[in-house]
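Go through this pair.

…
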Amino acid sequence: MEKGNTNLHFFDRYVGIPILVFLGLLKFVKNKLPRDFSPKRIAILNISSIGDTVLMSAPMQDLKLRYPEAQIEIFCGATNVGVLGMFPSISKIHKLPVTNVYDSISEIRKAGEFDLVIDFGPWPRLNAIFTYFFKSKFSIGFKSKNQCRHFCYDYPVVHSESNHELDNFRALLLPLNIEAKANPLLNLSAKSNPLPESNYILFHPWPGGYKSYMKEWSKENWLALAKKLSDLGHKIYVTGAKADMEVTDELVKQSEGTLHGIAGLYNLLDTAVIVQNATLLVSVNTGIMHIGAALDTNMVALNGPTSVKRWGPVSANAINIYPQNAKCGYLHFGYEYNKSTVNCMALISVEEVFEAVLKQLN
C-alpha cells in the first residue's frame, strides 16, 4: 500500500523537497488562464487512499459539467484504482507503478499532451514531481503548510486544515472559475447484490493506512455490539480486505455465531454493492465509510484520532460518534499520531454506539 510505504515517505521528505525546489527554478509559471480556456484533454492525478478518491468524485462531476466535451483521464496508484471504476464520465484510467518513480514518470510522458493537469494530492511531494513531468499547458495543485510542494504548479491553491477535505478538493477548481457544489457520487451500474439477504447490518472494523491500529475499536466492543443486535434478530456481516481475513476470522469465531465474515471474498465493486444494500453500516473512519456515505447508506461512523471536521462522512444519513476529548480528532493529513498519547477509540463506549444504531434502525 503506497500510503503506508515507509521508503516512499523517506524519499518524499528528504529527496522530494530539493528536487521540487530545483524543478521549480526550471519551470516557467503562467500568470493566468486565457479567458476562452476550454480544455479538450484533462489529466487528474490522485495516488492516495480510497477515502480521498471517493471525495474527489464530487469535483469531478463539476468539472465534467463545465467541460462536457473534455476527455478526463485519471492517473492513480494500486491503492485507489478499484474505486475509480465507479466514477461516472471518466475517459481513461492510468495505473501508475508508484513505488517505481522512474517508470511512473515514463508512463506519464507516454500519455501525451494535456491541456490541463490537476493534482489532488494534498501532502505528498511525489505528486508534485509527477505533475511537473506531464506534458500540459497548465497545472493546478495544493500549496500545503510546511510541505514545500507548490513550486511546480502554475496555479497553487492553499490547502486548509480548517476545511473538510471535500471543500479543499472543490477549491482546486476555483482557478477555472468553477464553483464546485456536487457531493461524492459513485455509479455501481445497477450491479446485483452478491449477498442473498435483503436485510442485514454491516460491520467494518478495519481501517487502512499508516498506523491504522490507532483507528481501531476493540474486538471486545464489536462483540458486545454484535450481541446486542443479534438479540434483536439482526444478521451481521463483517467486511474487510484480503489482508483483514485472518483478524476477521478470529472475530467471527469469538462471536459464537452472531457475526458472519465476508472479508476478502469480494472485490471493491461487489463490496460497494453490499454496502449500498445494507440496512445499516457501522464503520471506523476509513475508505468503506466514505463509500457508504457516497451511496447514502445509513451509517454510524466511529471517529477517534480522525477529525470529523476534516474527514467525516459527507452524508445526511450518517451519525458520527467521537470522543469528547480535546486531544482527539487531531489527524490532518493522516500521519500526525505524535500529537496525542490518548487512545481515542477506547473513549467510545458500546452504549453510545448502540444508541446511535437504534436511532438509525428506527
Observations:
- Residues 2-176 form a domain with the Rossmann fold fold (CATH 3.40.50.2000).
- Residues 6-26 form the longest helix (21 residues).
